[in-house]
C-alpha cells in the first residue's frame, strides 16, 4: 500500500486552503499549494515567473504560448498551461511516492488515480453569499469586487478541473468527502477528515 494523500478541491472563499493547512498541522505531514508552481518550475528548469499566470488555468487558444524551453522533464511544444500541468503532475506523483501529504487543487485527485497512493479526495464548498462574506471579512474588499472575484475564480477552477480531470467540479459525486463550510467550522471539517485518514 502506498502513502496516503489528501487532495482538496475548493470553491473560492470556502476555506479549503485553511482546511488543508489545519490537516497538515494536525497530521504532521507536508502541505502543498502554491509551492507546486515553484517545484514544477524547478523540475522543468523553467523560470517560475513564466508559469505564474498559468496556474490552475486551462490553456486559452487565443493566448496560446508554445513552450520549447526547459530540460529533459519537459514535453516540448505544449502551451505554457499544459506544460505547467504536466510538470505539476510529475511533482505530485513524486510527492505521493515519497510521503503522506495534503495537496490543494491542481487536479491532484485525478493525477493520482492510477498511482499506488491511497487518495482521499475532499471538496470544500459553501453558498455563494457565505463565501463572499468570508472573503470580505478576511481581505477587506468591497462586496461588488468580492462577488466579481469569486465568480471569476470559480469559473477558472471549474474549467480547469473539468478539462483535465474529466469530472464535474464541485459535484459531491466527484469526491470521497464533501463539506459545506457554512454549516461546519473549518476545524471540525479538518477533524472529520483526520478520522477518515486515520482509518485508511
Q: What would your notes on this structure say?
A:
The chain is built from eight helices and five strands; from the N terminus they run E-H-E-H-H-H-E-H-E-H-H-E-H. By secondary structure, the chain is of the alpha/beta class. The protein has one domain: P-loop containing nucleotide triphosphate hydrolases (Rossmann fold, 3-Layer(aba) Sandwich). The longest helix has 22 residues. The mean pLDDT is 95.
Secondary-structure topology with pairs:
Layout: E1 4-10, H1 16-27, E2 31-32, H2 35-44, H3 48-51, H4 80-98, E3 101-104, H5 108-111, E4 118-125, H6 128-139, H7 143-164, E5 177-180, H8 186-199
Parallel strand pairs: 1-3, 1-4, 2-3, 4-5
Helix pairs in contact: 1-8, 2-4, 6-7
Keywords, please?
alpha/beta; 12% strand; 200 residues; globular; Rossmann fold; 5-stranded parallel beta sheet
Question: What is the radius of gyration computed over CA atoms, rounded to a whole number of angstroms?
Answer: 17 Å
At the first level of CATH, what is the class?
Answer: Alpha Beta
**Which structural category do the helix and sheet elements fall into?**
alpha/beta
* Count of domains: 1
* Number of continuous helical runs: 8
Mean pLDDT: 95
Could you name the CATH topology?
A: Rossmann fold
At a glance:
With 200 residues, the chain is of the alpha/beta class. The protein has one domain (4-199): 3-Layer(aba) Sandwich (Rossmann fold).
